[in-house]
Amino acid sequence: MHRRSLLSTLIASIALAGASAAWAQATDYPKAGAPIRYVVPFPPGGLTDVMARLVGQQLGERWKVPVNIDNKPGSGGQIGAAEVAKAPGDGQTLLAITMAHASNATLFKAKAPFDFAKDLKPVALLAGSPMLIVVPANSPIKDYKDLLAAAKSRKLNAGSSGNGTPVHLTLALFNDLNKTDVQHVPYKGGAPSMSDLIGGQLDVVFSNFPESIAHVKSGKLRALAIASSARHPLVPDVPTTAEAGQPQLAVENWTAVMVPGTTPDAIVAKLSSEVVAIMATPDLQERARTQGFRIDARPAAAFAPFLKDEVERWARIITSAKISGE
Question: Which of 100, 99, 104, 97 is nearest to 80 (CA)?
Fold first, then answer.
């Protein structure tokens, strides 16, 4: 009995020490004056970069520390992600991720220099930007119903910003849902695919909203549907895929924050709470909406299962469509 009592006391002491250490980690974070490196694994000016800069600026002002955006593009976001996966888990290095990373977990599983599920830890989901289905302004395809009919009656081609990108995956999901075979034509980026669509070399693009909205507004492209459950305020007359009878084709190129997998949970919790609070500020929400984002802030506890579901969802589509990483 005496040994059992001593063992219970020892276990309780260890648990108390662990709790005290976690509390100390959270209390000491962020380190006074120490810069936070916010890695964006894509070029400046894109969807992910814009949101990271909005959040980074607010985070720096609230915590009174420098937050430096570090663009590390390459390999579909894998180069920057690998750097963060190997960084110290002290909360001083953040990673901006998108839906692309959820698909990369399958596309690059065999050759990635890190384990997405183990070497990175979810912090918070920030926002999403729904995919917009667009055709040339002079296309005979007038609405989503016409697109389905055309895809089943003749050979269509669809451009994308690259193999395995969210644009490509949305096309693959469309084909999977409708048992169609719209031909994928990959480009090196969204801009050249938009140019060829406007020029009539392509039939359709399941586009990133920011890449096509200006062309829709100018009348060069026609938007058939938006891949979401609710209409978008910037294109209120464009029906959703749900309204068009296909709610399963709901795709948002979301963006979120992760940290190295060794980062203590106490630091993750503090960072997560702050980021979600930032996303709730009216100024950031307004600025995000003007960029085409839908705010969808979720803390780590809610973001983790969402991320797991996204990885599994796109793994099925990638496997079914036999998509391989470049």
Answer: 97
Single out the residue of 248, 246, 157 nearest to residue 206, CA to CA: 157
The domains located in the chain, with CATH, are 32-128+253-321 (3.40.190.150), 131-226 (3.40.190.10)
Instruction: Give me the pLDDT at residue 11, please.
Output: 59
Flag residues of the chain having pLDDT under 50.
18-23
* pLDDT score for 19: 44
**Rounded distance, CA 96 to CA 80, Å?**
9
DSSP collapsed to 3 states, the chain: CHHHHHHHHHHHHHHHHHHHHHHHHHHCCCCCCCCEEEEECCCCCCHHHHHHHHHHHHHHHHHCCCEEEEECCCHHHHHHHHHHHCCCCCCCEEEEEEHHHHHHHHHCCCCCCCCHHHHEEEEEEEEECEEEEEEECCCCCCCHHHHHHHHHHCCCEEEECCCCCHHHHHHHHHHHHHCCCCEEEECCCHHHHHHHHHCCCCCEEEEEHHHHHHHHHHCCEEEEEECCCCCECCECCCCECCCCCCCCCCCECCEEEEEECCCCHHHHHHHHHHHHHHHCCHHHHHHHHHCCCEEEEEEHHHHHHHHHHHHHHHHHHHHHHCCCCC
Note whether 52 and 40 are within 8 A (CB): yes
Provide the pLDDT for residue 229.
87
Whole-angstrom distance, CA of residue 221 vs CA of residue 142: 11
Read off the tokens for 30: 């962020």
CB-CB contact of 141 with 224 (8 Å): yes
How many Cα atoms are found within 13 Å in the side-chain-facing hemisphere of 185?
17
Q: What is the pTM assigned to this prediction?
A: 0.87
